[in-house]
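In the design runs reported in the main text, the only information available to the sequence generator was the tokenized backbone. The following block is the verbatim input for one such run; it is reproduced so that readers can re-run the procedure and compare outputs position by position.
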């Protein structure tokens, strides 16, 4: 069985997430449990995950360790200091990955609706091809536009959507490939790890996930996540040798 380490970036400022509680989005409770806990437990309970690391901003470190002490102890989650950007935070965590981990998965701490079947799918693809991410094909019409005012923009053209995908996480890499991507980063400030890999010339597979696997960025996203919890697909006991043999791929779309 391949061995995975999982990195959960949670060091962002949550500038677009505003609530009366004044908490950052990974730390707010979603139906009674913190967002990051819902996320982390999907990985901590897997036999193929040997390490889970969360990257937390230095300004939140004391609060995080005290507030979530019982969760951290029970789930055996390692903590590292986040950096100035997402890429810096992931790199800090990457330096703490255990030597015996063969693959590294990066998953947004604020993406709590991930389920085991989607993780199985992208982990399997990464083992087969070295690098893989979850994503969903774009189905809406896409417009290229330029700002016109604070409230509106002017359309320049319509972008063909046939080959367009919306990237999600987990994004999973053979450890040496992710290290190579960081070594070739230069001044690039990527918005995800796949962009780093692209910059290094590393082919990345994209595996169809689900629109349900949303990232909480705004409070509207949080309210949608609350509603979607009730309709997440139930976990299935997957065949150990052929994990998708009994699945209809359409059920996850």
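Verbatim output:
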């Amino acid at each position: 069985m391949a061995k995975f380490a999982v990195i959960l970036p949670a060091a962002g400022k949550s500038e677009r997430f505003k609530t009366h509680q004044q908490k950052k989005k990974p730390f707010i409770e979603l139906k009674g449990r913190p967002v990051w806990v819902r996320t982390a437990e999907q990985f901590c309970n897997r036999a193929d995950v040997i390490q889970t690391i969360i990257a937390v901003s230095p300004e939140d470190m004391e609060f995080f360790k005290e507030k979530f002490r019982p969760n951290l102890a029970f789930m055996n989650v390692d903590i590292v200091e986040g950096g100035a950007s997402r890429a810096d935070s992931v790199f800090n965590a990457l330096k703490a990955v255990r030597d015996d981990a063969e693959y590294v998965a990066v998953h947004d701490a604020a993406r709590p609706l991930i389920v085991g079947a989607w993780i199985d799918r992208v982990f399997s693809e990464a083992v087969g091809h070295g690098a893989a991410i979850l994503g969903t094909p774009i189905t809406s019409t896409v417009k290229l536009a330029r700002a016109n005012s604070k409230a509106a923009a002017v359309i320049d053209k319509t972008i063909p959507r046939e080959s367009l995908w919306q990237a999600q996480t987990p994004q999973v890499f053979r450890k040496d490939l992710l290290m190579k991507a960081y070594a070739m980063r230069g001044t690039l400030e990527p918005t995800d790890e796949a962009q780093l890999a692209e910059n290094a010339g590393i082919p990345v597979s994209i595996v169809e996930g689900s629109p349900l696997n949303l990232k909480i960025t705004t409070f509207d996203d949080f309210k949608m996540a609350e509603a979607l919890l009730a309709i997440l697909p139930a976990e299935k006991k997957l065949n150990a040798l052929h994990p998708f043999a009994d699945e209809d791929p359409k059920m996850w779309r």
